[in-house]
Amino acid sequence: MSGEMHIPLETAAELVASLGGADFPHKLWQWLHAQIPLCHLSAARFNQPAADAVVQSVDWLFSRSADGVQDSEPALLSYLEKHWRQDPLLSHITPLQDPQLVLIRHEDIAAQDYVDDVFRRHQISAECNLLGRAADGVYALALYRQRDQPPFALEELALLRRLVALLLPLLVQHARLTVSLRRSQLPSLPHLFDKRLATTGIRLSPREQAMCHCLLQGMSAQGAAVQLGVKESSCKTYIDRAFLKLGVKSKAQLYGWCLACV
């Protein structure tokens, strides 16, 4: 790889012409992957009214992979439903003012279920994020490498850092010209849970089922108690009963159980 990453005029014209269309993610992937070895890229918007305000939600924009397959639904659902709250990227996004490049490796993530569901399951070794703020939140273009690929080199990171000023405005404009695929347009984890529950013959009480929904949405027993209007000790009882009926022993196993129907 040369010391500079040039974008040919023809390629730049194709990218700009494809903004708002279905071809933009593919053309962006083709160009980036030709410059730097990648296994996957994903674009998202973190909805935040202003710097230092609370990030309210995440909208997935698009994904592309080396094999042409987009994000598997389980991985996408798991991130949009709960793992984004565990993402160490949030500590960079919340105060973000100027464009930034952030490298995250699986050892940087404290939440073990996030590591297992996203990084280990898909053999991801590193995630390089290009971040930029717009009026409607922070846009992130995440570039991934698998374990059988070399880690991001300092030279590559320096080149990507210089590309932030080019790529982020394109990403923002593309999002404004398209209808983002929001979380509400995907089947939620509670929906998948109910779907599988209906096929098993297992009977949960309304409280037990609601408790499982709360856990799948990333709530703690304390948060679920507030949500359901019951004592925290009662929530723990509902959890124990539901887990026993379902044959699971942890939140991670509950998550896997509901995704078994996907």
UniProtKB/TrEMBL annotation:
What parts of the sequence cross the membrane?
none
- The domain of life for this entry's organism is Bacteria
Q: Which GO terms describe its biological process?
A: regulation of DNA-templated transcription
Q: What residues does the HTH luxR-type domain cover? A: 197-262
InterPro entries recorded for this chain? Sig_transdc_resp-reg_C-effctor, Tscrpt_reg_LuxR_C, WH-like_DNA-bd_sf
Question: Which SUPFAM superfamilies does its entry note?
Answer: C-terminal effector domain of the bipartite response regulators
This chain belongs to the protein called Helix-turn-helix transcriptional regulator
- Molecular-function GO terms, alphabetical: DNA binding
